[in-house]
Amino acid sequence: MAAWNPETPMEDGNMTPLVIEIEEFMNSSGKKTFTAIRTILESKIGADKFAALANENVANGSNDQKRLVLKVLQVFKRMNKKRKRETALSSNGNATANYADTTALSSVGNAAPNHALQPFFGSSPTAANPCKRCGEREIDMVNMPCGCNTYCSTCARYTVEHHQRCIECRRHVRHVRSSDSRFEVQCSACGFIWDGNAQHMCDATERVIRLPASLPALASNGDLPPHPIDINKVNKVLLSTLREYADPEDIVIGGPIFAEYRFQLRDDWFDAHILDIRKRAGLKITEDNRHNFDDDDGFADRIVYRVSVSTSSRRNINGRYGPDKDRIIRIPDYQRSVLHDDWDQQKVYRATRFISIFNWVLNGLSREYLTTLSKVPDHVFEGYKQQLQSLKLKLVSLRETYFEHIYILVPKSSASIYRRTAYV
Ligand SMILES: [Zn+2]
Ligand SMILES: [Zn+2]
Ligand SMILES: [Zn+2]
User: Fold this and answer.
1) Are residues 268 and 313 in the same domain?
2) Can you spell out the DSSP letters for 38-88?
């Protein structure tokens, strides 16, 4: 993207590329959001100008630099929220929607008409077939080896250089060619590129990944029971990440082992991939044995790996691979609880009694309504939360154990409909 140019007028722009860049920087550097935003903004604006902003329009202990960073942080958070909602609604969470920001930046002190923020925030999409990453330039490249048409040349190059996946099919993009180039294909196992009419004999290492029929339970703290592992959940994750390399007919499910994935993949790509699986999914893939076997045309290596659940990931302990939790929801007698004495328990109860999944029971002793939803997976529960949100109610987590999660149901502070009439 172009350098910062103080002559260009400030216009409302599409902030998607900026947010994507911040995200990528966070992924590759492990830096926190705040630091990532500062770093990216500084690289866009230039170190001198960025430093100068710290002294411009200083009022109430704030300055233009701070305001700009905070505005970008707001947009970043809103965009992630929006994406999360879209992911929860559809199982396909890959799409990156364009996020046009029309208000946030124009209110930054620095963004006076003669100060350009526009060049690095991009403009509204004008291309007939806009790139799915920047939403701005025309799609003119083909991803390889997958063959999807998704990016402009700038974004395509970025995707390859940063070892990213295709936005459409989630396979790694190893190489790109221009849409009008001649027909060529790439081997997804070794990276060899050839004319699609010819044959390719792949010599990438053969690998076999085995998931045992059961995995030992993870130890918990203190006297709590150990955390059993749900093999189905582990396999779901494996399947989604190894499908890129293992053909369905080379995936064996059942028998003495739970599942077996067979594929070929060159060493550096494989090493990066299992590191990624460990980081993102908390699964360890370790070498079990390696043997030399007599292939039709010479000797080849075949390496067998074993899957285990990493004990160093907190999410694993918290139930990522454990059983679905029971959810216990309470409508407290708000007047008895110091925090929410203004809310009317009956009003909350009446608003939620027709939601069929809830089966409220009044506890005579504590005078609270209780419902238990047994064994609800996280993504299903997310839907219930949204249903409550539309009623201006929220769940506040009270206590979470490995097998159950207890919440209280509380009106949002703006929801005056749940206040006691005595206060009106
Ligand atoms: Zn692009
Ligand atoms: Zn693709
Ligand atoms: Zn190959």
Assistant:
1) yes
2) HHHHHHHH-HHHHHHHTTTT-BTTB-HHHHHHHHHHHHHHHHHHHHHHHHH
Q: pLDDT tens, 79-102?
A: 777 776 665 554 333 333 344 443
Structure confidence by residue, pLDDT tens digits, 188-197: 999 998 887 7
Q: What is the pTM of this model?
A: 0.57
* Statement to judge: residues 278 and 243 lie in one domain: yes
Using H for helix, E for strand and C for coil, what is the string for 316-360? HHHHHCCCCEEEEEEECCCCCCCCCCCECHHHHHHHHCCCCCCCC
Q: Which residues contact 127 (CB under 8 A, 6 or more apart)?
A: 136, 137, 138, 139
The number of the ligand nearest the C-alpha atom of 189 reads: 3
Dihedrals phi, psi of 150, to nearest 5 degrees: -135, -20
Cα of 62 to ligand 3 centre, how many Å?
57
Find the 318 Cα to ligand 2 centroid distance in Å: 33
Q: Which domain holds residue 220?
A: 206-320
Work out the average pLDDT over 275-294.
88
